[in-house]
Structure formats: C-alpha cells, structure tokens
C-alpha cells in the first residue's frame, strides 16, 4: 500500500515539475491556470468564457495565461503575429471541426493555411466589394430592407425586431448565394421556418461535450446531440444543384464547369456561409438598433437622420461618415463574434508580446477585450459612442484595433456583404423613422456567448417605430 502512495506522489511531483518548467508558466495569470484548465472549462460550459478572460486581462494586462497550454493576448502586436504573420497567421485548432457542414470541412473549418487558401481562391472574388455592390445585389438588399420596414410599421404596436432582422439577414445572404432561389422569410411562412431553425437553438454545452469528449460522442443520448437543421439542409442541397443560377452569385462560381468542388462540398460551403450570414448580420443589427433606440442615445439617431436626409438618395454608402461610425461603434461594443479565435503556435515556438510561447500552445485574441482594454484608445470603453470614430486624434490606433472581423488572410470573408446589408437597412429605417425601446420590452440584451459567436440573451428586442415629420423634429405617433 505504501508503495502505491509513493508511486502516486512521485507521479504528481513529476507533473508539477513539468508544469513549473514550462515556458508558459512565466506568463501572467492566476496560479491555478498553470496546472489545470478546469476553471476555463467551467466558464465555457456556463457561457462565461468571454467575461472570464476579459476580467483576467483587466487584472493582468495584455498577456494572460488561461490554462496550462493556452494563453490570451490583447495587443496589436499579438494580433499581427497570431493572425497575419506570413499572410494568414497560425493554423486553427480542432475547435473549428465543430463547424463542419454535412460532415465536411469548409473554408471556415479548415485548420491549415494551405487548404484554406486553396478553398478561398474558389470564392473570394464573390465577396469583393466590386461584386457586392453590383446593382443586382444592392437592389435585392434594398428590397429586403424595405420589406423589413413594412413589417415593422404594419402595426402601431411594438415589434420584435430580433425576429425580422434575422429574416432580413437570411433573405439577404441566400439571395446573394442562390439568386434567383433566395429565401423570402420576411413574407413566406415556409421560409420563416428555416429562419427559426437556424436562429432559435441552445447548443453550446452540447457542442462543447462533443469537442472535449469526441470518443464518447457516438454514445451520447439524443438530448446531447447538437441541433439538426433538416429544412435548411434540404433547401441548401436543392439550391446548390441549381442549373442556371444568376451569374454573379456564390453558387454560380462554385458550380462552374472547371470547379474542383463536388456537389456535397458546394452545399457544405454554402450552408456555412448561410449560417454565418444570418447570425453576424442579424445579431449585429439587433444590438445596434437597441443601442440607438435608448432614450439617452437619441442624439446619435438625430445625427444619423440629419446625415441621411441631407444628401442625395444616390449617394454611395461609403460617403456617409456618421453611418459608418454608428456601424463600427456597434460592432466594437458587441461584435457578432466576440470570443477567442484560437490558433496553434507553429513549430519551433514564437515570441509574442515579449514572451516565448512553445509550439502547439493555443493562443488567441478576443474582439470583446481588444475593443475595450486600452482605454487610451477607447475611453469609456463600455459606453456606446459613435462620435469617437469621427475624432482625428487617435483615429489610426482605433482603426488598427478594430477587430470585429478578425484580420489577415483568414479574416471574415463576408465582411463587405455584412457591412452593406447593415448600412442599407439603417438607411431605410433612420432616414424615415425614430425608434424607441418599447414599454413592453422584456428581453435581456446582454451578450450571450455561444461557441465563438454571441447573441442577445433574451433573443427578443421590442421597439417602436415612429415616422418623422418633414424636417425631422416632430414625431407622428
């Protein structure tokens, strides 16, 4: 019996020595993160990883150890090293395997840089601003924005914009990918069901169980299986097999005669873009409109109204500096993907922010913290204030730390489409209406963490739409 205790003590001693000798123990952080990842996993399963890491950064600075083999960074130097060195930064971790579609890797879920770059070549030109701004795409986005407005003003009562913003985002991205087969969930009950299937779910803990216990996953009961989306799958498979899609759509590019992709790969890629498009644009707009609708933020609404109504309706979207400031501030405060973007340190290790980090260590930055930690760049970081983006002083630093879409070769491919969709909708709404938070608003608008994305915790945001009289001062109730 004594020999068993001695052997156990010996093994524990070896474990402790190995941990203490690891270079990562030299990084700032709570003592326990040098020995165990239990604290991090607890906060992940309780939807609190983002704030757990953010609070550690507030205490320890731009570098913090969060687990024995994982560190978080929040500096411009680290962003450039992790996500942009060599063009595309470090390789992704296995976390991204959770984002396979139809069991297949997509551009987003590929782990190594080479495979990602090969796939990106197949579709990157579709998301170039020159293609996004084609008349056919902008016209379709504008039509859907007007459908959204019609939905919101059809009743004199409050309206849950969370619902209709996700319909708008879904209709926009599917038209961009599949026209003429895009969805019409703002006007069609059957298409609305696809929006519900993609939006209303709770899969965080289930996905984490599959990530951390992959060998046991085949034996999990059905109630521990992440969400299924049969209606979405049927739609995507059908649209990916279209014989004559519009020339400038995503599916037209992926199914061209010399495309190296199979039908299954095309469908997987399209479903991935579809899911990303509804979450990022729908949730981002919801957080934004809620901020603008609060009484103490009506000054920002008035500034936006004045800009939108004092220029020609033909003015290009990039000629509205205050509109741009409003969108960027909303994405700074509540980035649709506020969580860590994990990467593996390459072979040989790297020095990041002055600390040597060994190979295969997981490193990351999270937009939520990057947008808040340096208060010299972002004073009053938790305050929604679009005016900060119009100040000349510190403009370069603010823009360099704007991390809502990540950066480098693996940054968000759809950022141009998302920005155009957001700006078109805001122009349609705030050139005519003032929005206010409804008295029957009961949904919690705190940021609710998912795997890497986030959404309003209550998944509801009730607003009132009041049409402005000519001149914008009076409000027609």
UniProtKB/TrEMBL annotation:
Keywords (A to Z) from UniProt: Signal
Signal sequence range: 1-19
InterPro entries per the UniProt record, alphabetical: Cyt_P450 (IPR001128), Cyt_P450_E_grp-I (IPR002401), Cyt_P450_sf (IPR036396), Cytochrome_P450_monoxygenase (IPR050121)
CDD domains in the record: CYP_fungal
A Pfam match: p450
Keyword Signal: yes
Coiled coil: none
Family membership: Belongs to the cytochrome P450 family.
Record's protein name: Cytochrome P450
Protein's organism: Aspergillus cavernicola
């Amino acid at each position: 019996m004594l020999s068993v205790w001695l052997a156990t003590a010996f093994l524990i001693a070896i474990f402790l020595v190995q941990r203490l000798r690891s270079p990562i123990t030299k990084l700032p952080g709570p003592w326990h993160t040098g020995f165990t990842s239990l604290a991090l996993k607890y906060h992940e399963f309780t939807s609190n990883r983002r704030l757990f890491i953010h609070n550690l950064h507030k205490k320890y600075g731009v570098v913090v150890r969060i687990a024995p083999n994982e560190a978080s960074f929040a500096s411009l130097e680290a962003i450039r090293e992790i996500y942009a060195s060599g063009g595309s930064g470090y390789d992704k971790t296995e976390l991204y395997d959770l984002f396979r579609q139809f069991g297949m890797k997509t551009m987003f879920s590929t782990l190594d840089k080479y495979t990602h770059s090969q796939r990106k070549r197949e579709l990157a030109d579709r998301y170039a601003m020159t293609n996004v701004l084609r008349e056919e795409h902008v016209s379709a986005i504008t039509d859907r924005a007007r459908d959204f407005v019609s939905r919101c003003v059809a009743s004199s009562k409050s309206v849950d914009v969370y619902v209709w913003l996700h319909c708008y985002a879904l209709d926009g991205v599917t038209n961009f990918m599949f026209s003429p087969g895009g969805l019409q969930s703002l006007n069609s009950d059957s298409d609305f069901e696809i929006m519900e299937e993609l939006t209303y779910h709770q899969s965080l803990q289930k996905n984490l169980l599959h990530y951390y216990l992959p060998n046991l996953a085949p034996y999990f009961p059905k109630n521990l299986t992440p969400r299924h989306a049969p209606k979405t799958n049927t739609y995507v498979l059908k649209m990916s097999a279209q014989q004559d899609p519009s020339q400038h759509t995503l599916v037209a590019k992926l199914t061209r005669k010399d495309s190296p992709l199979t039908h299954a790969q095309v469908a997987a890629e399209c479903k991935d873009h579809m899911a990303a498009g509804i979450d990022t644009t729908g949730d981002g707009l919801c957080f934004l409109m809620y901020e603008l609708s609060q009484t103490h933020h009506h000054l920002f609404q008035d500034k936006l109204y004045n800009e939108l109504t004092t220029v020609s309706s033909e003015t290009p979207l990039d000629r509205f500096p205050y509109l741009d400031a409003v969108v960027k501030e909303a994405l700074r405060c509540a980035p649709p993907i506020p969580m860590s973007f994990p990467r593996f340190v390459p072979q040989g290790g790297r020095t990041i922010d002055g600390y040597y980090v060994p190979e295969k260590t997981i490193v990351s930055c999270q937009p939520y913290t990057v947008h808040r930690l340096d208060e010299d760049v972002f004073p009053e970081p938790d305050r929604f204030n679009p005016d900060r983006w119009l100040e000349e002083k510190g403009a370069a630093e603010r823009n360099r730390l704007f991390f809502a879409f990540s950066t480098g070769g693996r940054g968000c491919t759809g950022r141009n489409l998302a920005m155009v969709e957001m700006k078109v909708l805001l122009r349609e709404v705030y050139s005519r209406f003032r929005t206010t938070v409804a008295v029957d608003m009961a949904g919690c608008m705190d940021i609710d963490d998912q795997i890497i994305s986030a959404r309003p915790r209550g998944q509801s945001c009730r607003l009132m739409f009041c049409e402005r009289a000519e001149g914008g001062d009076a409000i027609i109730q």
